Each structure stands twice: as structure tokens, then as C-alpha cells.
Amino acid sequence: MEAPAARTEMLELADEAFRAMNYELAADIYECQLLELGPQRALYLSKAGALTRCGRFTEAFEAYRSAAELERLRPEDLSDLLDCIAANVRLKEALPQAAGRLRHGGPGQEKEEEAAASEPLSCRICLELLFEPVSLPCGHTFCRRCVEEETVTECKVCPLSPAGAGAGAASSSSSPAKPRAHLGLTVILCNLLEKWFPLECRARRLQLEAATLAEHGDYTAALGLCEQALSLGKGSGAGGPAPVPG
What we know:
Elements: H1 4-19, H2 23-37, H3 41-53, H4 57-70, H5 75-93, H6 109-117, E1 133-135, E2 141-143, H7 144-148, H8 187-196, H9 198-215, H10 219-235
């Protein structure tokens, strides 16, 4: 068995490979450490994250399940998986927009926001293809789920809040109004998106359903929906899953 110092050095090497976006190497090192040290939840999650980012989703699912057997998964444990699957389906459909950002952000986030700003079908909040789009009183359009998040209190493009466009300057001195859940869907745009990007829309729907299940603690069902979303990506183009940029 390796000495503790050697194990620490190997894990540092894996973390360094991960940061350098050499996810194949990172996954291999995490696997070696699991064989050496035995089942460890943190190692399974690290391995799953690396496998997800290099498009090896089937193996990633197994690593997530192994982690869940040791301790119940949390919603944040699956956030990158959901985003990577959506990005994989987007790449398969060859959408003319950014591949979406991972939830942890990163140094390239500003460039991705600029890319989303130049794409009329991208949501400026999640930086992905609009899904169930709603238009605010100011005229800008976002995903309904993004607008309904409690943290979203104003339009990301202009200063108007989702609560209404007629508040004027008086509203700026008061507390920001929370978004209203009754905003209606932009039906025509919904239909066009479903027609132009059917796989992307189906994958986004599965992604959101999986996220909801994860929030309620049903991680087995959430992983099942993730696998369904992945199958959409496999069926939309030749070859295996496309690697996801880190």
C-alpha cells in the first residue's frame, strides 16, 4: 500500500490534471486511488466529475451511483452532470451558440456571456438555449425557470425589474421587487424553438425534471432522466458523446 505522502501527491497530481482540463488523466488517477484506498465518496465524485467532462457519461453514472451508496447525494453533486449533458446534446445538434457554462463559473465566463449576448435565442441568465421563454415588460426574453428564481430581481439586460415596467425611478429607491410567476410563455417562440431544436428542448426538459427530482432527494430517478437526456445526444449524430469544454 502507498505511503500517506505518496497518496497525497497522487491526489494533488489528479487535481492539477483536472485544473489543466486533462480530464482523462484525472479520471485514471482517481480510479487508481479508489483501487488503492477502497471506496471513498469524495473520490467517486471527483472521478465522476472528470469522466463527465470528457464525455464518458456511462462510467460517470456508475461513479455517481457508487458515491450515492456511501452517502446520499446532494443537488449540487449533480449540477455539473446536468449542464454537461445539455452541452453535449447542443454540440450534437451543432447549435450556433456557446456550449453553455458550468455552474461553477470560471475565467471564460465573460466571453461566454458576450457570446450569449450576440445570440438572440440564448438566455442571458443561464447562457443556454431559451427554454419555455417568457418576455418581461421591458421586452427582453429569458427562460421561465431563470426568471422565477428568487435571486433574479431585475432584467439582466436593462434596469427594469420583472415586476413591471411602469414603476419608474421611484422603484429604484425601494427594495427590488421579486419576479412574478404569472408571466406568460411566449407561445410563438416556444413553438419555433421546439421545431428548430427538438433534441435540445427535450434534453432541457429532462434536465429540469432531473434537477427537480434531485432537489427532492430522488437521485436514482434523477440519474435515470440524465441517462435519457444522454441518449438524445447519442442519437443525434455519429460517434460517441462529444467532450465538454471545461
